[in-house]
Amino acid sequence: MIRIPSLVPSALLGSLLVLTAVVPAQAQTSPGRGVWGFEVEAGTDNRSKAASKSCNDAYVSAYAAWESDDGRIYVSPGFQTIQAGGSNIETDWIVGYRPEAFGYAFDLNLAYKRRLDVDPGYDADGLELSAEVSRAVGPAQAALLVQYAPDAPGLTRSYVWVEAELGWTFSPRLDGSAAIGRREQDGGPDYTGWNAGVTYALTDALALDLRYYDTDAAALDEQYEDAVVARLAYAF
Known about the structure:
Shape: globular
Helix content: under 10%
Number of helices: 1
Strand order of the largest sheet: 2-5-6-7-9-10-11-12-13-14-15-16
CATH topology: Porin
Pfam family, one: Gcw_chp
Keywords: Signal
CATH architecture: Beta Barrel
Protein name: Porin
Distance between the termini: 37 Å
Number of strands: 16
Strand content: over 45%
CATH superfamily: monomeric porin ompg
InterPro entries: CHP02001 (IPR010239), Porin_dom_sf (IPR023614)
Oligomer: single chain
């Protein structure tokens, strides 16, 4: 059965508004020292690789990002709320490189993930390597993403996720996209997941995303069930 989200809970939205009110709405720049940016987010379900990380409940996240003056090298620490192994918080530490060649954009990164306050015996941390290639032609965009985790948090020992995405820019404020991916896991079920939705820029810094997710593994666990997810993100 499709899960239709209620509005983002007022406590979560309140936290988002407080965070955005106490910091300047401009990226911090220092010539020759790179650029700092920040993003806070709240949504009705924390979806990753089409599956829920929050047991189909609402979540919040916050990330900082530093990138070099040419935009190629970046570092991004942050956190997101989850529900797994007794933990409600996952921290992420990401370092990456974004070159361009022959009209294609590449994004190569390594992420260290750690879940806080886990149950005894639960594997709290893991590594994930990602490689993405994308290209835009007029209003159309396409991307291919490959992710490999040699050591994943929780019961899953390792996995590979491969995803293809197509997008279209309808207007300067409205974008649509759809993606399909396949996850092969050691210590977890293999499944195919997909999503489709639209993102609307309410302002230059505030965006609303409405997206439908589903997998072919809904019978295995509620985290794989389909859902309509609303997400509000503020970047500064």
